[in-house]
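Two entries, shown back to back:
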Amino acid sequence: MSTSSDAQLASGPAPERLASGPAFEPHMRWPDPAEKELFRFCVREGAALVTRRSGAVRFPAELPSGAEHVLGSLFGRTCLAVDGTDHLAPPGCEWVDLRSLWGVVDELLWGIAGRAVQIVEWDRTHRHCGRCGTPTVPDLRERMRRCPRCDESAYPRVSPAVIVLITRGESDERALLAWGARRSQAFYSSLAGFVEAGESLEEAVRREIREEVGIEVDDITYFGSQPWPFPHQLMIGYRARYRSGELVLQETEIRDARWFTPAEVEEVVAVRGNFSISGWLIEGWIAEQAARSV
């Protein structure tokens, strides 16, 4: 069992978003052997090892041994991802899917655990060269596995996806939210889709909206981004304005899509809060409309 004396951080409000906060510094520097107080995140196949004590969900200090990867430093202490793929949960611990931990553990820790899931999965699935089949070796200078035979390089996969909040109207502004076909129960969010090869982000915005709901947009404005480890996405957020067209839904992707006022958003189950970029987009728009009415 590997141990660290201060790896147990309880759930609670995040100090700030992972993407903008100085608390976490990404790097690949291995800790000094004398450094004992490490943060370790044991993960496997999209799940993290946690404990539940006195109502708090924590990342445990005692972990199964496994391949380790440096993620960076949190408050100056080295963070390691531990590959727990071949291990059962130790007594008092359990494997919990990362989606189920969303909003349960601290936002900063959830983001680092998501990073750990992606790094461990990439390392396990790129042990052999995709070109010639030769076993690969890790590079010591950057996050990469290299083939010693043909020199093919394999970096952690990142899949860019755009996510867009579309609005229309002036004094009575409304936002377009959609219920995805993969959800059996009504749940509304902003529209999203993957970027295709050879496509700019703005082109992806226009195409996805046209394909999924049949309308045209303009005034496409960058909003922000968020890593999203399901399984290795980078969500790039935009705001856009309705230009023309009637809603025509792509039934394989969208069950329902409607133009909502802020008050109507409160009447349905929709993405809210500050944990995901979809929530940031929706909450930001609702706050704008509230400020207008003052």
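entry 2 starts here
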Amino acid sequence: MEAQPHAPAPADCPTLASLPVEPLLTAEFDADPGAVYRRLRRTHGPVAPVGLMGVPVWLVLDYREVLEVLRNECQWRRDIRYWRARAQGRLPADWPLLAGYEVRQTMFMDGEEHQAARGVLHSALRPFQEARSPQGWELRAAVARYTDDLVALLAAESGSAGFADLGAQYTRPLLLMVTTRLFGCPVELGDELVMDLWRMLDGGPDAGAATARALATMTRLAAHRRARPGDDLTSYLLLADPGLSDEQLGRELFMNAVYLNDITGNMVMNTLLEVLRGNATVRRSLSAGQLGEAVNRAALANPPVANMCFRFAARDVPLGAYWVRAGDIVSPSAAAAHQDLLALGTSHLVGSAVSTRAHLGWGAGPHQCPTTARELGSMIVTTAVGRVFDHFARAELTLPPDQLPWRSGPVVRGLRLLPVRYELSASAPKRRPSTAMPRPGEDRPPLTTGTHSADGSARGLLSALRRLMFGK
């Protein structure tokens, strides 16, 4: 007989606080998180109690259970106010992951409030998502042009053959350029913004200060665009919801900056890595001209967000071999869940026909990445990846794959750098500085981000990129 859906946990079931937990973020996890996920699954089953920087958390490991948590918004809440330990003041005062979750924006809302905020974002993004609209066409042309400019700048500074870091010299500046254009920033955003997003997501000791700096930058941008609206996402968010305050709009821009720079950037880097390290299924898709499929297969092997945003149980519920109590914190692991899909894909009963669209790189359920944002992100990733292999006649890793440096954190498993030895093709683009200069009459008042000054902005985008890429 099935348990009643709202039945309380039996009195003799262990609570999360009573269970012995092992720290998740260890040297073993840094070196091989997949092995840690497999060991936890053998010990505990689909759900395991782990310690996350001193706080006990339920880690969801199996694909079926992860989907249940992602899809059932009534049971699994995103609003941090459901977290019992926080409400009772039992968290360490300096717990580094709390800073990002205290930023109240669309991602951490539920129900009608979430749907309304999501509708505003969808409305504001739609002009850029439509390939035939002026905004959509211009953005797609700009992304392609930026990739060409970055390759041309690499050739001008380092030659047609040599060594490069496809993180610092290609992916990160590309996403900053796209963010600058899409958000309508009056100056180029600096690499320090990306570092602050990393610090927040990875739970570093200065996560709180990093979050505050990034929020302050986005709030200043909101105030600037309110006074001087333009043809950009910031202005369209205000148009879709004029009641947004500068602080509210700044928080929404902050969220989108995280997704655009970190999540989308990881998807670019991870796809490049899977090709360069010799992932056969990704390479076959790329060779067949199926860029979208190559990206999906790379996301399946190495999702851009390893362990997704916390959920909080609305009521007692059985999950895996345990009962999760109302107010408990749960972390659904896409990286662990993908091991189930990869195992199916290698089975002789299924073969390679497993749909790669089942990957969780864009999330799932009510909080999955909105269609407009997902299509924009896919366009950026496929353009960035495709242009690398269009313009590079040869590229190979300069480190063994198991020696590449990864960011150590509870959310994202992202590369710090992607070092390659390269040779450009004869048709690779030559430097065209005029294509990246500000448009005539474009407003460029100062917006301090911590890296670029107004003087640097006036010298144009390629000058700013030279400082990002080569320290000049």
